[in-house]
Prior knowledge:
Elements: H1 6-58, E1 76-81, E2 87-90, E3 113-117, E4 127-134, E5 140-147, H2 149-197, H3 215-264, H4 269-300, E6 308-312, H5 313-330, E7 335-337, E8 344-348, H6 349-366, E9 371-378, E10 381-387, H7 409-412, H8 420-430, E11 434-439, E12 445-452
Parallel strand pairs: 7-9
Antiparallel strand pairs: 1-2, 1-5, 3-4, 4-5, 6-8, 9-10, 10-12, 11-12
Amino acid sequence: MSSLPVRLRVTLAFTLAMAALLAALGAFLYFQLRSDLDETIDDNLRSRLGEVSGLVFNRPPAGGGFGFAFGDEDETFAQVLRPDGSVAFSTSAAGDEPLLTSPEVPPTDGDPVEIEHDSLPGVEGGARLVAARAGDNERLTVVVGASLDDRDETLASLLTLIFIGGPVALLLASAAGYLAAGGALRPVEKMRTRAADISASEPGERLPVPPVDDELGRLGRTLNEMLDRLEAAIERERRFVDDASHELRTPLALHRAELELALRYGEDADALRASINSAIEEVDRLVALAEALLVVARSGEEGLALAREPVAAGDLFETAIERFRTRALNAHRTLEVGEGGDLVVSGDRLRLEQALTSLVDNALRHGAGAVRLSAQRENGAVAIHVTDEGAGFPDDFLPHAFERFSRADAARGRGGAGLGLAIVDTIATAHGGAASAVNRAEGGADVSLTLPASTVDE
């Protein structure tokens, strides 16, 4: 069943439902018509029973006959039975044999009874009987009956119509269902055909959406929205690979040049040492770049794995300052710690240190003056700020500051892969926080990392 096409499965289910419906409708019509016909026959027989009972009570028939015409005697008949069950009077169609057996004789004080026989002597087909007590002291039993031949013919005609018309109606309904299912599934087939032609080399192609706002229309719009997201993701990954390749090309070329230089001047110890030191610096840059690329790539797949714990902002400040102390002295810059060191955040210590050192590195690389680290509460969270006294970000760069491989070279100098702030934003988002960058009114940049506060501090 599951291997059949959807159109056939829908048609088959519709056919089975229609067959059950037609069978139930046919059975209902048959038994309803039979009940109506039996009720009509019984009403007629009760009327006849009253006539015969009155005749027997007031003027018993003589010579075994009735003194009036008793309808069509081929179809209706009557008998009067003695107390011993023998026939006292009878119409010609009823014959001389009693129509009732002893158990079927109604009681003297009871209502008339209806009885149906499959066959009676002298009566074609089955018959329905109505019997009641009558005469002096109700000792006599009056029985009137009617042949069921006409009823059975009518029911047989109905059955013929059901068994002939039912399959014909079922066939027509199934054909209509098959065509209706095909029409309903036509938009799906159009979407399938278009989907088979869509590829990454042809961006912008979308599935045809039916104009009606039904299930298929909503499905088509949902799939097109999914294609929009996939196309945007593919474009981001393509741009990421292009930028990563470009960023890796320069340090690899420099690394090769330093190694060639060391090979050429291998007899000069100072030159060899300088080349090796330069090569080590390029390797360090490659390692940092590889780590940054790994963080960005993981954030786009299953997300960063975090080992959350309470972390004091002051501990993060101390780690960052210790790491950049020598570099700041060499650049004649100062590192300062402001307020908020006692605030505690909930997060992965190593990842938070990575984000904060990236902010400090960015401020030392592109900013000027003192670099200040501080923290403060903001709406139940903790915001860690890193500020400098440089030229700040260009206004048109601020909306793109946290995008991958974005740089503000014109105002902030050169160097770096453009992944520092992107990594900060990735780590903040993984912690359920956010990163932001603004220009200070007094000059310089203010980059903040907002993180959830730890319950230990509350």
